[in-house]
Amino acid sequence: MTLPPDLDPQKIPQHIAMIMDGNGRWATSRGLPRIAGHRQGAKTLKQLLRCCKDWGIKALTAYAFSTENWQRPIEEVDFLMHLFERLLRRELAQMHQEGVRISFIGDLSALPPSLQTEIEHSMTETVNNQAIHFTIAVNYGSRSEITRACRQVAELVAQGQISAGEVNENIVEQHLYTADTPAPDLLIRTSGEMRLSNFLLWQMAYTEMYFTEIFWPDFDTEALHQALLSYQKRDRRFGQVKTLLSA
Ligand code: FPP
Asked: Which of 24, 125, 128, 245 has its Cα between 20 and 30 A from that of 102?
């Protein structure tokens, strides 16, 4: 899939984060059960991953399941866990062949053991792939991630490996799940909600945000194209003034 000609290849975001919202409403609006929306949402994600790779985007991070999502009806939680596992089993070989590096972030220890096994396997198998870095956030919450990092840094201080005065942003960052991954340039959230919902709060300090009314299952490559057009019109200053940045 080639880059649409009205997009500037020099200004393609390196890393896109996605909050895939509206699966349930997409299904309900068609008289289908909510899980049908998740199934269709997974197809959308697969198509977008390939599109991102083709358009030169180097990283895609998708919010698949938050720490709060356990409060959904048990049948829906079960369905999602099975869906993740089934997709990994079914799609891993092809993703690997296409050069996708797969990572998972979040507290994976609470997931069903058979899913944990597939996750481990997918991460080790694809660790050296370079085409695109695909990160899936499962049982992820940003506050809990930052708290965990604080705990780890506090242990370093307690062990005398660093002093409290030496704790800096870099050290905290190194203890996040996303250590060594550049921050997202663009966040896309579908379905009209305009919140971060505890997703990558530290990492998105300077991320451009794009919100659309489209429900996630309908977010196709044309919708991504529109998001990128909007992104390319933005003036990213990272808190500086323009002259300083370009100097
Ligand atoms: C939010 O829509 C969506 C989810 C909580 C699940 C997202 C999961 C997928 C798209 C499957 C992707 C698969 C992999 C392997 C990552 P919602 O249910 O909150 O929708 P609603 O707001 O309309 O109820």
From this structure: 24
